[in-house]
# Entry
Amino acid sequence: MASQVTGELNVFESAEARFEIAAKRLGLEQGVYRFLKCPEREITVYIPVALDSGRLEVFTGYRVLHSTVRGPGKGGIRFAPDVSLDEVRALAAWMTWKCAVVDIPFGGAKGGVICDPSKLSKAELERVTRRYTASLSDWLGPERDIPAPDIGTNAQTMAWVMDTYAMHVRQATTAVVTGKPLELGGSQGRNEATGRGVMICCDKALAKLKMKRDGCRVIVQGFGNVGSQGALLMHAAGYKIIGAADVNGGLYNENGIDIPKLYDWVYGQKKHLPEFPGGGEKMTAQEVLFRPTDILVPAATENQITSQNASRVDCRILCEGANGPTTSHADAIIEKKEIFIIPDILGNAGGVTVSYFEWVQDRQGFFWRESEVNERLQDVMEHSFDQVVRYAELHKVNNRIAAYIVAIDRVARALKLRGFYA
Ligand code: GLU
# Structure
């Protein structure tokens, strides 16, 4: 998963490296630069949980609040065996920049628990989630810090977070988390939102590069929420998905993969993705990244495209559905290949954008139709894409640095207006 790649910066250093380049281009003053570089708060909690066997296990959890300059902290909770404080730190900072790129009134935060959800029963996962939430209840809240799903967590996890928080504050508080089930104040369209945002960005990139959507070849690495929903939507819209992969391995088929059937195979029949009958050539999940394609969507986890392998990437458009799939050492190689990059903080921002809509709906107690959610999402994504690309062209930087500059500039302006409380 997010493990360290030899000779490469770790995710936190990678995030910092881009921040530094953008801050320099922006001429950010030293004090502001130093303030925005550090998180506002980092919490480590040790979570004692009785396993079903009766044995007591102690899990380690984190919640990092990177910034509340533009609004309450916002960001997912990740359950994975290789979660580390450095990773959560990087992900929290990325949430700040992501929310700023799409101009929604949130700061950035992220949480994680070191555990393997595939090895825990539903009851054990519930106890981990509730104890983690209880330990953090003073710091969470609709105006403080608002979690959401991420790798290893889902709408059910969010329902437990919401209920635990509600018991502590003694009132139902749906707006404390997003990505909830519809029955509990979730939003229409939230489940597909990140994948939809990826597609909207790809549509925009195609239009910009004067390429056609029909039959446009796409490889998606990752078949979790982002990858599977993105692939389903893109398949339905006329894209040809020629490669797919998840933790169990990859598939490549130049004639195109039947994504709705693959979805049923993996999620309905609970079978391994590479075993999909007639699916295509089997390979590792890494190998799928290097097949020729028009669009490559890494939608799995960090550190997939590195300085060691970036020269093998063979696509016209790289749309990052995951957070941090490309290391900062790989950036120059991708740039030299003239690949049109849609950086993570823009490419996967559809999820947090609809999280924002969910929070707004919860606070208003008034819920929108799915078409309304999707229209508003389209509007936000298209506008943000245009701004980033315009900035990149004007200032002759790549789209990633342009996205960081747009984001950092927004946060820095807000910070200057607020001033420093002493
Ligand atoms: N975990 C998602 C992300 O990395 C969603 C975060 C949210 O909706 O708060 O963007």
